[in-house]
């Protein structure tokens, strides 16, 4: 047998081995529970659309479930990730779940009012719609009203109305005067003459639109979490670098007008950290814990942040991507 023929056979075998290895390395299915498909999860949507999760060997499945379902699913390890807002109260009580990522360094609700409402004082005696009692939307609404010199329940009525669509219908019918909504809804309403009179970042500077995972996943499969985090951080960098492209993704994914998608994306840009994408500041998390704990009678001053959040893997991913955070929690 000639040396040339042997060389060709070896090349063929090597090629076959590579194909077989690729076939074996099938993408890992990851289940991420979100409350509703909206701009709160823009980095997730951009990462999926741009193939960033696929590049990490992940097949991301987004499951739209209520917060009442998300936490039990996470505790039962039926999903890999669920909203941090739903898990924080449980973490404060000692449940084995921790926040590992936040899309925004501050809350992003926009207090939108009907066109005839000129200022905050015009809201006196009227009704504001919230999502559900005790939610971040409820907390943000109360804090914004307080900043405007109004007390919820005394000067302004709060009406739980569920999702944003129900709240928009309430405003359009005139039964409610306004609501704290996400940037995409605010941008849409602005085109119809509604006013944005306050951004919750002014009064509710807490890490926002976060995701939590189970302690066992953190312990047993940190590599999966690193891959998931890497895709998200890269997506956040893309959004900051090219908001127009991110808006195109949002318009397609959320089936909305491209101009409104771009306006909403620009409203969000200040909330996406350049220095600490995915992370949070200690003061913001402390405030989040305090406000959440006060509603369940917890003395959060005695609870370490490490009980409710873990940033070790995020910091590793940031360093891999050349990001050296300075002011965030446990930045080194």
Report on the structure:
This protein is of the alpha/beta class and 332 residues long. It folds into two domains: 28-105 and 207-320, 3-Layer(aba) Sandwich (D-Maltodextrin-Binding Protein, domain 2), CATH 3.40.190.10; 110-202, 3-Layer(aba) Sandwich (D-Maltodextrin-Binding Protein, domain 2), CATH 3.40.190. 46% of the residues lie in helices and 16% in strands. The chain contains 14 helices and ten strands. The protein has a five-stranded mixed β-sheet, sandwiched between helices. Strands 3-10-4 form a three-stranded antiparallel β-sheet, sandwiched between helices. Strand 6, helix 6 and strand 7 (157-160) form a beta-alpha-beta unit. Mean pLDDT is 90; it is low at 1-24.
List the helices and strands and how they pair.
Blueprint: H1 3-24, E1 28-34, H2 42-49, H3 52-55, E2 58-64, H4 67-75, E3 82-83, H5 84-92, E4 97-104, E5 110-113, E6 127-130, H6 136-147, E7 157-160, H7 164-173, E8 178-181, H8 183-190, E9 195-199, E10 208-214, H9 215-220, H10 222-241, H11 243-254, H12 258-268, H13 282-294, H14 312-320
Parallel strand pairs: 1-2, 6-7, 6-8
Antiparallel strand pairs: 3-10, 4-10, 5-8, 5-9
Helix pairs in contact: 2-10, 2-11, 4-5, 8-12, 10-11, 10-14, 11-12
């Amino acid at each position: 047998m000639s040396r040339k023929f042997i060389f060709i056979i070896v090349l063929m075998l090597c090629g076959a081995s590579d194909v077989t290895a690729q076939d074996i390395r099938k993408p890992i299915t990851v289940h991420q529970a979100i409350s509703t498909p909206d701009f709160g999860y823009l980095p997730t949507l951009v990462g999926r659309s741009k193939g960033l999760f696929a590049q990490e060997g992940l097949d991301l499945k987004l499951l739209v479930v209520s917060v009442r379902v998300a936490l039990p699913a996470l505790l039962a390890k039926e999903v890999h990730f669920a909203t941090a807002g739903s898990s924080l109260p449980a973490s404060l009580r000692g449940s084995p779940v921790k926040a590992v990522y936040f899309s925004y360094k501050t809350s992003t609700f926009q207090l939108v009012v009907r066109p005839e409402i000129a200022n905050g004082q015009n809201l006196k005696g009227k009704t504001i719609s919230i999502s559900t009692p005790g939610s971040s939307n409820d907390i943000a609404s109360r804090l914004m009203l307080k900043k405007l010199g109004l007390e919820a329940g005394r000067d302004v009525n709060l009406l739980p109305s569920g999702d944003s669509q129900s709240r928009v219908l309430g405003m359009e019918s005139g039964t409610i005067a306004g609501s704290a909504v996400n940037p995409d809804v605010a941008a849409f309403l602005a085109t119809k003459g509604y006013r944005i009179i306050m951004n919750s970042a002014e009064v509710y500077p807490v890490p926002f639109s976060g995701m939590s995972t189970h302690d066992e996943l953190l312990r047993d499969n940190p590599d999966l979490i690193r891959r998931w985090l890497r895709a998200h951080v890269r997506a956040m960098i893309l959004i900051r670098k090219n908001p127009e492209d991110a808006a195109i993704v949002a318009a397609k994914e959320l089936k909305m007008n491209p101009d409104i998608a771009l306006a909403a994306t620009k409203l969000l840009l200040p909330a996406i950290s350049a220095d600490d994408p995915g992370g949070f500041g200690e003061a913001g998390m402390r405030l989040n814990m305090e406000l959440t704990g006060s509603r369940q009678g917890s003395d959060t001053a005695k609870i370490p942040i490490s009980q409710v959040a873990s940033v070790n893997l995020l910091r590793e991913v940031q360093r891999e991507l050349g990001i050296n955070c300075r002011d965030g929690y446990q930045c080194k």
